[in-house]
Amino acid sequence: MAEYTRIRHTFEPVFDESSQILILGSLPSVKSREQGFYYGHPRNRFWRVMSEILKCNEPKTIEEKKQMLLSCHVAIYDVISECDIKGSSDSSIKNVIPTDIELLLSKTNIRHIFANGNTAGKLYKKYLQDKTGIEIIILPSTSPANAAYSLQMLVDNWKSALFSDLY
């Protein structure tokens, strides 16, 4: 069994001044940390879900991923700045230091915040919601660990929540 490791979030949020939607994960997985960018595990369905919703080709490079999100006014970041964790197991997270999303919010037009999974949603409510004053909507996780949801179920859930008032 993996031992606890102290992890510090090392890459920047993706946003610009026209961002209207913020999607928060909990903390980058081991694979994402190796790649230095969000949702880097090859079986994580985040990029497939977003490309389906946004009607784009699935992005492959970090630059393509950023461009897809920004062109559709979507920002991404994580709730955790630093914590102790075993591997990529959200259930093992402890000793959390939350990210400072207030700076991101001050530089954008974020109107809605969504959590990619229950852990991100719970942590946002615990550490950040009182500071931001913005309610979070929890969406089913795109993680490969969430086998209960097919790709189409994720697309349907995410699309109806994220873009019901924008598109």
Can you give a write-up of this model?
The chain has 167 residues and is α/β, with parallel strands linked by helices. It is 34% helix and 22% strand. It is built from 7 helices and 7 strands. It has helices at residues 30-35, 46-54, 62-71, 101-106, 118-127, 129-132, 151-162; strands at 4-8, 21-25, 74-78, 80-86, 94-98, 112-116, 136-139. Strands 3-2-6-7 form a 4-stranded parallel beta sheet, sandwiched between helices. A 3-stranded antiparallel beta sheet has the order 1-4-5, covered by helices on one side. A hairpin with a 7-residue loop joins strand 4 and strand 5 (94-98). Helix 2 packs across helix 7 (151-162). The protein is globular and about 40 Å long. The model has no long low-confidence stretch (mean pLDDT 93).
Topology of this protein?
Blueprint: E1 4-8, E2 21-25, H1 30-35, H2 46-54, H3 62-71, E3 74-78, E4 80-86, E5 94-98, H4 101-106, E6 112-116, H5 118-127, H6 129-132, E7 136-139, H7 151-162
Parallel strand pairs: 2-3, 2-6, 6-7
Antiparallel strand pairs: 1-4, 4-5
